[in-house]
Automatic annotation (TrEMBL):
Top-level division of the source organism's lineage: Bacteria
Molecular-function GO terms, alphabetical: 4 iron, 4 sulfur cluster binding; lyase activity; metal ion binding
Cofactor(s) needed by this chain: [4Fe-4S] cluster
Keywords annotated in UniProt: 4Fe-4S, Iron, Iron-sulfur, Lyase, Metal-binding, Nitrogen fixation, S-adenosyl-L-methionine
Protein name per the record: FeMo cofactor biosynthesis protein NifB
Shown chain mapped onto the complete sequence: 30 to 329 of 484
Amino acid sequence: SARPADVDPAIWEKIKDHPCYSEEAHHYFARMHVAVAPACNIQCNYCNRKYDCSNESRPGVVSERLTPEEAVRKVVAVAAAVPELSVLGIAGPGDALANWKKTRATFEAVRAVIPDIKLCLSTNGLVLPDHADEIAGMAIDHVTITINAVDPAIGARIYPWIFFDHKRRTGLEAATILLERQMRGLEMLTARGVLVKINSVMIPGINDDHLPEVNRAVRARGAFLHNVMPLISDPAHGTHFGLTGQRGPTPAELKALQDRLDGGAKLMRHCRQCRADAIGLLGEDRGQEFTLDRLPAAVT
Ligand code: SF4
Ligand code: SF4
């Protein structure tokens, strides 16, 4: 398929068969997510822990929580039934790296059975510097970091607290630590040759005018793609930005912002904000066909 003009040819070689990055590939290759990562180490104002992480998945949706052993059974069953399966992602329902033992165990066990599967994960980035060497060493293909601000004063309006170094931290201190860790994690991964995509959630009146600055900061540190997702505002999944709640952007506002951003932003316009246990070609979700109670008893 054709390489978009703003994508580097060397990067395009690596992503052209990936259903999430190539408009063309998403018709031929399938991806699945397994929800093995329940915990999170920060609080986003737009998150309600009952539902999936908004980093990379549709907010307000509950996915089937799996142990690593259950996840491996599921991946093997899906690979047998969906020959297009090429990518396995861990994107929640919490933070993939806040649950690193489970994430790593799942990836290692799946790779042992399906050696050529591509692996990806998404994270808020708080503990990314601690795991960058292992991520690169395991040949994880892509990492997505959700970065909503590069100014701690704006970050503090989005993140009420983080849990870091055995302590809960709030306000500007929390936002400053998170930002510093996200930037360092991004630099460490790109220096080690891991492809890094940045997701930002567009929150009108909070970070919408600031996202071009985020775009420049992450491109300068080697992110190959910056994907802006709309805040999906629903009082039921908790938007705590103000007494009256927080609206999401209109489609026209989202498109106007995406047009202002450089560098592969257009590649991701077909991102569907899939749920954390999505299965199949993009635009379809066969997750309900592969719930645990429907899997064969053993696959080892
Ligand atoms: Fe929720 Fe994800 Fe934010 Fe954690 S990183 S608080 S799971 S949206
Ligand atoms: Fe791909 Fe977006 Fe779905 Fe992730 S959420 S699998 S990037 S389309």
